[in-house]
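Hi R.,

Here's the chain you asked about this morning:
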Amino acid sequence: MPRFKNPHAPGSTTPRRCAGLWAKAAAFSCAGLAVLAIAGCAQLPGNAEDAAQVSPTVEASVPVIQSPEEVAVKVMNLFARPDEPEQRWHAEIRPYLEKEYAVEAEYIDPARIPFDKILSGPKMEGDAHNPQILTADFKTNAGTWYVELHQNAPGGEWLVGGIHQAP
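And the predicted structure, written out as C-alpha cells:
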C-alpha cells in the first residue's frame, strides 16, 4: 500500500484540507519559479535594458598611437577617401578627433573632399610657446592641406582639432 494517497482519488480517506495545502504549496512553488525565471532573465545578455544602451552608430576602436606624426598620417589617410560611404567614413575618423571637431566633421561630405592621394608629408611645425599644439602639412593631389594636432596633457594622446586646406 502506498505511503501517501491521492486526496482526490475516489474512496480516499485523506481529509480534504490536505488537498488544499498541497494545491497551495504547488501554486506557491509555481509562482516562485516564475518569479525566479523572470528575475533570472534580467541577468541574461540581450534584455530590454541592454538594448536601450546599444549605440546605433558604428564606432571604430583607436589603436595606441604614440607620436603626433602617426596620428596625422592616419587621419589624413582616413580623410582622403571621397568614395567611402559617409557613415563608415565618419565612424572610422571620429575616434581620432577632438570632441568639438568631431561635431563639425559630422557635416563633412566625404564625396566633396577634393583629393584622394597624399603626395608627401607630414612636415611638422610646432608652437614655440606650447609644445602640445602642432600642425602637420601634407602635399596632396589638390594642393597643400594641414592637420591641427592637440595634446590635452603632457604624455597624453594626440587628437585632431581640424583639417584645412592651406591658404
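The CA atoms of residues 7 and 15 lie 7 Å apart.

Let me know if you need anything else.
M.
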